[in-house]
Amino acid sequence: MKHSKPWPFPLGEEKWNAPYFLAPVAGYSDAAFRAVCTEFGAALCYTEMVSAEALIRGHSKTRELLVRDPVEKQYAVQLFGSNPETLAKATEIVSAYNPIVIDLNCGCPVPKIIKAGAGSALLKTPERIGEIIRAMRNATSVPISVKLRTGWDQNSINYPETSSAAIEAGACAITLHGRTRAQGYSGKSDWNAIRSLAEQTTVPVFGSGDVFSAQDAIDMRRTTGCDGVMIARGALGNPFIFSELKALAGQTAAEHSDEQLSPRIIARTAACHLELAIKYLGERTACIEFRKHFCAYTKGFAGGAGLRAQAVHCATFKEYEALFKEFGTIAGSPTLSGSSF
Ligand SMILES: Cc1cc2nc3c(=O)[nH]c(=O)nc-3n(C[C@H](O)[C@H](O)[C@H](O)COP(=O)(O)O)c2cc1C
Question: Total domain count for the chain?
């Protein structure tokens, strides 16, 4: 792997030796899940995308998205919006939480977000991305990064232009999800695009898309030369991907053989995760929100389907406890890679 950029790469004051991050994942990457991923070895975790507009209006639920668990020595906050002034004000608010980096979302494909000119709508106007990043930079001393898709659709692949606009405006790093807005989460992430960007830019490039196992993350770095790997769906129900990566760092990939994760360890981790979520959200909300995490933790296990059917009725820790116990003793075999959320 060739690195023409400084390594370990700097991001703000920090130097990042471990290049495997938890990506922003709306509805999943809250303080509790980020804490679990941090404990398992994620070098940096991103908040889910936070509305700049809602933040400056003082929306209390939006502010809650910025809460950081004590185990998170550092974290990154992602903002979305379309107006440079609004994003500048939101950047000021977020800076008080001391993130290592503030990221601008230019990838969200959700129609409601696009209609407001935010997320991947920004891909259509690289100069707007530059304007927003300049405004955000002027509002803070925290480094500003950007997360892009390759383009709006197959006929308008423009990541070289959008990333240049971001870098010229002072972005400290670029994440490239190798899909277009039109692809959503279907098809394949174009790792060639990630490689091409990593070769051509002077700032750190993080790759995103189709990393479902520790080996995938290592392959992405090896084949694209990207500086960091953002893991999204591959970490859901599988924070162990980060500990596997840590283990692999001490070995060659060829020597590594995937250890079978026992249902007991997964159940214990899920229980700790839920306890933390309750600390932040209160029991009822946490238990309802946790249903999707429970599905992710038990995905691919024989016997998991019956437990998932019961989890949709769980509203207390005690109710989950019975399921964790049952799950911990089932002997199904895990297939943690190849997730298809
Ligand atoms: C449920 C879900 C929510 C997501 N939320 C965000 C988000 O808030 N901000 C963002 O930049 N990307 C978001 N993404 C995109 C991921 O960060 C990532 O770029 C994409 O899923 C590809 O990576 P993967 O193949 O590892 O999942 C989301 C993806 C999913 C599946």
Answer: 2
Residue closest to 336 by CA, chosen among 274, 266, 247 = 266
Q: Which CATH number do you get for residue 79?
A: 3.20.20.70
- The answer to whether the pTM exceeds 0.90 is yes
Distance 112 CA to ligand 1 centre (A): 16
Give residues (CB < 6 A) around ligand 1. 23-27, 48-49, 78, 105, 107-108, 147, 177, 185, 208-211, 231-234, 341
Cα–ligand 1 centroid distance for 255 (angstroms): 31
| Structural domain span for residue 102 | 9-255
CA gap 138, 133 in Å, rounded: 9
Is there a single domain that holds both residue 85 and residue 206? yes
Q: Give 146 Cα–ligand 1 centroid separation in angstroms.
A: 14
Helix (H, G, I), strand (E, B) or coil at 190: coil
What's the CA gap between 102 and 145, in Å, rounded? 6
Q: From first to last of the 341 residues of the chain, give the pLDDT tens digit.
A: 445 576 667 776 666 666 899 999 999 999 999 999 999 999 999 999 999 999 999 999 999 999 999 999 999 999 999 999 999 999 999 999 999 999 999 999 999 999 999 999 999 999 999 999 999 999 999 999 999 999 999 999 999 999 999 999 999 999 999 999 999 999 999 999 999 999 999 999 999 999 999 999 999 999 999 999 999 999 999 999 999 998 887 754 444 444 567 899 999 999 999 999 999 999 999 999 999 999 999 998 888 899 999 999 999 999 999 999 999 886 454 433 333 22
